[in-house]
């Protein structure tokens, strides 16, 4: 007889995996650690996930969907692609300030070569996430953004936003001393073709 899936247990497994990835490298997270953290046997993990990679994929999808939905709900409507992108950057920064663990987990998974296929297959992600990818792709198609692999653009954006939020969280400086507008300009300088502010 097959065991019935409990939605609460599924969330506990995902949450425990997020906590472990936040504290250590993705490659170091095992289903044994997750099971111990949740208080279940390791075999119970496989009721919910095919394997460890499937678990990591589900964590990634949940965290990216939450980030993307936040950006979708928070961004200010803009009349042009540049304005839309600027608004998305501002919303991403607010997400980083409010959800530092999520952004850390997303970035760790994106940086792990074992999970690069997750970036290449955005079909599993929600419509809000597609919005971010569409902005980047349109920016490249129109010549607004540099013609480099999308993962390089994503890393430039996320790593700078995460570092700004981390520095504020750890008291290195305040948001008033180092306003996000400077970081946004740094990102613009890095990925835009030509200058524009």
TrEMBL record:
Q: Which UniProt keywords apply?
A: DNA-binding
InterPro entries reported in the protein's UniProt record: Homeodomain-like_sf, HTH-type_Tx_Regulator, HTH_TetR
What does the record give under GO molecular function? DNA binding
Could you tell me which residue ranges the HTH tetR-type domain spans?
A: 7-67
- Which residues fall under the DNA-binding region feature? 30-49
Domain of life the protein comes from:
Bacteria
Q: What is this protein called in UniProt?
A: HTH tetR-type domain-containing protein
The lineage is:
Bacteria, Bacillati, Bacillota, Bacilli, Lactobacillales
